[in-house]
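One record is kept unedited as follows:
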Amino acid sequence: MIFRSNETWHEHAVENPDEVAAMVDMSIRNSTERRRLGYFSCATGNPIDDCWRCDRKWELRRKRLADCSIGFGRNAIGGRDGRFYVVTDPGDDNPVNPIPGTLRHAVIQDEPLWIIFKRDMVQILRQKPFGICRCRHGYFHVVNNDYTHWEMYAIGGSAGPTINSQGNRFLAPTNPFAKEVTKREYTGESKWKHWNWRSEGDLFLNGAFFTRSGAGAGAGYARASSLSAKSSSLVGTMTSYSGALNCRAGRRC
């Protein structure tokens, strides 16, 4: 595949003054956020981790994690001020009437919550999903993720979202009918061909492929940029410590 440099991308962006202004504004905000998040920095390379994992009293100030957000969600309130919901049951046998204590029961509550786990329950998150990402309406920046083990697709969308995929690594499953990264829901090609979906600097493995649509560049993608993407070749290193954390109270996580 062909990787385009930042210089090339910016050269095309100059054709649209509004896009350039939006990119400059986003760059300034990202720089400010990174400086703010570096207060507890222990050089993990991940600005969100640097924001909280180096604090020895993280377990007493875990809700501070809500202040560590960057990108589009940095001002979202969500469950920030809600109570803690402890997931104690790894089961998922009753999707219609979820059992209290399960993750499924936690996510259907109609109040703000902080969902935490009593113990390592990685198996819950490893259940094979039909799609790894749901995108409806608006602008989505999918950046520097490692996508594996999807059942039907990795990125799905409906209702005309703008999707800007940058620097991700997509490893397709062995199923020959599940190699496509993307899936458009509830509409025909005559409509979704106008949706702005692009892939830039992504790495596709084991036959994975991304179906692009809409404009190749434009102001919509500037609005769908939340932070600077790193090379997809670094995704393995960046996600090497993902999963359940071995944290202990009184120590840096």
